[in-house]
Amino acid sequence: MAAPKSLEQRLSDEIDARREDLIQLTGDLIRIPTLNPPGENYREICEFLRTRLAGAGFEIEMVRAYGTPGDSEKYPRWNVIARREGKHAGECVHFNSHIDVVDVGKGWTVDPFGGELKDGKVYGRGACDMKGGLAASIVAAEAFIAVCPDFAGAIEISGTADEESGGFGGVAYLAEKGFFAPERVQHVIIPEPLNKDRICLGHRGVWWAEIETYGEIAHGSMPFLGDCAVRHMGAVLEEMEDSLFPALALKRTDMPVVPEGAKQSTLNINSIHGGQAEGDADFTGLPSPCVPDSCRMIIDRRFLIEENIDDVQAEVMEVLNKVAGRRDKFRYDVTELHRVLPTMTEKSAPIVQTVARAIAETMGKDAQYVVSPGTYDQKHIDRIGKLKNCIAYGPGILDLAHKPDEYVGVDDMLDSAKVMGRALIELLASPKKAA
Ligand SMILES: [Zn+2]
Prior knowledge:
single chain, alpha/beta, Aminopeptidase, Alpha-Beta Plaits, six-stranded mixed sheet, four-stranded antiparallel sheet, binds zinc ion, cobalt, ArgE/DapE, zinc, metal ion binding
């Protein structure tokens, strides 16, 4: 007589048996185009998830983030939160996925909203970022419940709005309403596409600012009668090239940021606008001769956990002060547009340790720890929700996100679903874990 199968083996078999369902679910999610901006079909996808998860015994809440950026009657910011209680007291494991996808862009060879299966991959906008991860977490939770119906604690699955545009109408709003309070949720996994053997601990910080230089308008044939704001901005750029960029390149972090180039401080000049606005594409006239009296530049500074945001700002002010010291009539303003502090979950945190063991057991290799160069919704769970026990872990190749012919591999989704399911076994299968 064969030995009875372990819970882990039964979970793995259960997930393999749901392969077709996983493909169908991923395709169905892709076929609801949730483009952001402007925030299309959020209600539709939340209704779809409500039906699916209510069928699996989850209690469903639909929450509209009234009054958040972009929320309107035409484009309401809907979120769905599903919770399934176990049979015993215990901890809650929450899977959070964003439902929005970015613009399609050019260069596709397949229908971006077709959800087509080809050579073991499901294609479409959002396939890897992150409808594949959402589908994998749903199948993982459903398979876990099937093999372990008497589990302890609770499982939550949320589909949230607007991650691609800052998450204010999604996770930030829910965190403010207490959905990520440590007394309600103890572990969070965000199935962003970080690759199935990598645990993402957090992200670098962000400081976006607009620098405006001022001049004086005059006739373009007599620029000496005015003062050119664009030349002032040119001096700012020159000073940045001479002193700021080299200094940033020397700042290295101990955070395991990928890719390698993002292991240092970075600054992107996002845009510069100076002088007259450009005419419409069909305007055939000439510009009028004027000296520009304003030039605006948006900078996107990404900083490290070793850095302090006050110092990040002070460095930019120093550039401007240096320029002011050598240019007559140099006047400027700096306006902060956006700030996010760096966040990094400790490697010793329970969710990190649990998922690392699940990766090792499922894939037979050690988990890799990474930090994301850009931010994602973990920032709100950490800062607003005050919940530190949070990681990003999910299937898909990060480099494919936002690109044409985006896809997610079916085997990768199955493997990561097994990792998520094993994590549920470790955290919830036994009532011993009761909080
Ligand atoms: Zn994403």
